[in-house]
Design a protein that fits this description.
Blueprint: E1 2-7, E2 34-36, E3 39-45, E4 51-54, E5 67-71, E6 92-96, E7 100-106, E8 111-115, E9 122-127, E10 132-138, H1 142-153, E11 166-168, H2 176-188, E12 195-198, H3 219-228, E13 232-238, E14 241-242, H4 248-255, E15 261-262, E16 269-272, E17 275-278, H5 285-293, H6 296-299, E18 305-309, H7 322-329, H8 341-344, E19 347-351, E20 354-357, H9 358-361, H10 365-380, E21 386-389, E22 401-403, H11 411-426, E23 432-433, H12 445-455, E24 461-463, H13 480-506, E25 512-513, E26 531-533, E27 537-539, E28 549-554, E29 558-563, E30 568-573, E31 576-581, E32 587-592, E33 597-599, E34 615-617, E35 622-626, E36 640-644
Parallel strand pairs: 11-12, 11-24, 12-13, 13-18, 18-21, 21-22, 22-23
Antiparallel strand pairs: 1-10, 2-3, 3-9, 4-6, 5-8, 6-7, 7-10, 8-9, 14-17, 15-19, 16-17, 19-20, 25-26, 26-27, 27-32, 28-31, 29-30, 29-32, 33-34, 35-36
Helix pairs in contact: 5-10
The structure holds alpha-D-glucopyranose.
Alpha-D-glucopyranose binds near residues 171, 200, 309 and 390.
């Protein structure tokens, strides 16, 4: 059962795309609806063992109890397990109590969740703006609530096959020479690689839709040469446009009145990487088109992959936040970017002729951008594109993947990555992953290997780091063969990962699931360091420093697989608790009872994969494998072939 409840006069956020029957607000008495000033508050009591799932890209565990979360898209590079806001807002929660229900609060501005916060034994949701749609879903299980929700927000975006390969990235690669060095490193050790991300330094003075021609002498040829080697270039595209007279993109947007306006009605200016920057009005159809049409600049070069960044939008400072900026410059430890609400109350959008304060629509700015770019790429290219964005909202998944922003090289951030994946999948985001190894800080060889041993299961598998962090390319570490072993497993699993991804996307399902979504077993209710991956696998990552053993729980008999770079050792294991061990070059995972796992051959990149050339492991009878050319837009259930054992 799904119903929609309209509060005030909501804006169309483009999140839900199916018609949902309207309900009467009086049906919501079990949520104790309260109105306070401009806010609407919902409260629901929790029993001791109730579980609350959801909230997509947030910190904390899979069970959201004990936390305070604020939906307000924030550039938060120093986040920890209790940081309330990250880069995206995904207002979907599922409550596993005596009644099983889920809520989607379709509000484009701040929503606060206090979930058994400070042992309150209740879920309290404060919608700071009274104009929003609330969707209520009631089903027999949390998993069914998620499936119903996914069915109204539309199929997830499906990237090309190469986007399931491994990608190397770093803030600091500046030139063709830098990129060539990376490729040489990977080639020298015969390590696989499908793409390299180009961070902001590829541009001319951080001006969008430009290439620094001193560093890339003949970019078109370069893109072509790399593609022939099976390597795609994936440029970053920020949202802010450098305010510089004579810079044609800036001038054109100014002429066509495409930028957000300040309190005085002039183009609002903030400081981001390029210095003074203006912000295209993504809530205005004409302005967002002006922005996204520029992607032709890249597609003309043969580029078919992108990452969208700084699109919360992140603003370092402006004339309105001088005081905050001074704190930042003097290194004030209490300074947090997310305190700068004043910034977002200083500029406006033009939505169908109506002037709307940015603050009131803040959480859909990056979302509208990704939708606009996605639609544009779809018209510019005759094949599928790869894209992942930092900021998003419910519905962005139809056009783009996401990555989880600037994490850190910490063991608990690896754990956070594991916790985020199923929560993101509940909100539709299947093409997702974190900066493997952590964006900032010092990543040890051990942490990188363990992180890779988890990320190899995430659809987006990218090694990215900050310019201040230690170098992370696999070939820079001792005993490169250990890295090769982990990477080779990723490529051998691609036929499975690709098939399971397409199944989940086309049937509005999850790819990463909590065990509790499949097994009716009290013991799995709070397990959040083991996950189901697709229909056949369970993973049990090693996430503790210095430990090559851990205890795990099997909710049924399963086949343990241990891979060391060449062989798959299979061992049947009974239901119950076990201790497993894996050296740094090894990965242990499990095939579920009655299921099959297709395993392909090792390869240098996905252009060389033969998706059909697989062997089947496990005790199941049949497996549906997805076979296509890896880029055609007509992805469909008809392209599965059934393999029998
Ligand atoms: C932001 C991004 C990060 C990128 C950096 C420079 O911090 O999150 O991934 O490397 O900007 O562009």
């Amino acid at each position: 059962m799904i119903k929609k409840y309209i509060f005030g006069k909501p804006l169309n956020t483009e999140s839900v795309i199916k018609d949902v029957e309207n309900g009467q607000i009086s049906d919501l008495s079990f949520l104790n609806v309260n109105y306070k000033n401009d806010s609407v508050i919902f409260q629901f009591p929790l029993e001791k063992d109730d579980i609350v799932y959801g909230l997509g890209e947030t910190t904390s565990t899979i069970n959201k109890r004990g936390g305070r979360y604020i939906s307000f898209n924030t550039d938060m590079g120093r986040h920890r397990y209790n940081t309330p806001s990250l880069y995206s807002s995904h207002n979907f929660i599922v409550i596993d109590s005596k009644i099983k229900f889920a809520l989607f609060i379709d509000s484009p501005t701040r929503v606060i969740y206090e979930i058994d916060y400070k042992n309150s034994n209740e879920v309290k949701i404060i919608c700071e703006n009274k104009n929003f749609n609330l969707y209520l879903i009631k089903e027999d299980t949390p998993y069914k609530c998620v499936r119903s929700f996914l069915s109204i927000i539309g199929h997830c975006y499906i990237p090309p096959l190469w986007a399931f390969g491994y990608g190397q990235s770093r803030f600091g690669y500046k030139s063709e020479d830098d990129l060539n060095q990376v490729i040489e490193g990977y080639n020298k050790y015969n390590l696989p690689l499908d793409y390299i991300c180009m961070d902001i330094d590829y541009m001319d003075h951080f001006k969008l839709f430009t290439i620094n021609e001193d560093n890339f002498k003949n970019f078109k040829d370069y893109v072509f040469i790399l593609k022939k080697q099976g390597i795609h270039l994936v440029p970053i595209v920020d949202v802010g446009i450098k305010k510089e007279d004579g810079y044609s993109i800036y001038e054109k947007g100014k002429e066509e009145n495409c930028y957000c306006k300040n309190l005085q009605g002039d183009d609002y200016t903030g400081v981001v990487w390029p210095g003074d920057t203006v912000f295209p009005d993504m809530l205005n159809e004409k302005s967002s088109m002006f922005f996204s049409k520029n992607f032709k600049f890249y597609t003309d070069y043969g580029i078919d992959g992108f990452w969208l960044d700084m699109n919360e939008p992140s603003i370092f400072q402006s004339e309105y936040s001088k005081e905050d900026s001074e704190k930042k410059l003097t290194g004030d430890k209490n300074y947090y970017l997310d305190n700068k609400f004043c910034e977002y109350k200083c500029f406006y959008h033009n939505v169908d002729g109506e002037k709307i304060l940015h603050y009131d629509v803040h959480n859909i700015y990056g979302h509208k951008l990704a939708i606009s770019v996605g639609k544009q790429l779809d018209t510019l290219l005759d094949k599928r594109y790869m894209m992942f964005t930092r900021s998003s909202y419910i519905g962005t998944h139809r056009y783009s993947g996401i990555w989880t922003g600037d994490n850190q090289s910490r063991w608990d951030h690896l754990k956070m990555n594991i916790h985020q994946m199923p929560s993101l999948n509940m909100c539709g985001f299947l093409y997702s992953g974190a900066d493997t190894g952590g964006f900032s800080g010092y990543c040890t060889r051990e942490l990188l290997l363990r992180w890779m041993a988890f990320s190899l299961f995430t659809p987006l598998f990218r090694n990215h780091s900050s310019c201040n962090a230690n170098r992370r390319e696999c070939y820079r570490f001792k005993k490169v063969s250990d890295f090769k072993s982990i990477l080779s497993l990723r490529y051998r699993l691609i036929p499975y990962i690709y098939s399971e991804y397409v199944k989940a996307a086309l049937t509005d399902d999850m790819y990463f699931k909590s065990l509790s979504f499949e097994y009716d077993d009290e013991n799995v209710k709070n397990i959040d360091d083991q996950l189901l991956v697709g229909d056949s696998l369970m993973i049990t990552p090693l996430i503790e420093k210095g430990k090559d053993k851990r205890t795990i729980y099997l909710p049924e008999e399963m086949t343990m697989v241990k891979y060391d770079g060449s062989d798959f050792k299979l061992t049947k294991m009974e239901k119950g608790n076990h201790t497993i061990s894996a050296k740094l070059n090894e990965v242990v995972f499990f095939i579920r009872k009655g299921k099959l796992l297709p395993i392909g051959k090792e390869c240098k990149n996905t252009s060389l994969i033969d998706l059909k050339d697989v062997q089947l492991l496990g005790d199941g009878k049949e497996y549906d494998l997805y076979i296509d050319d890896g880029y055609s837009k007509d992805v469909s259930m008809d392209k599965f072939i059934t393999l029998k054992k």
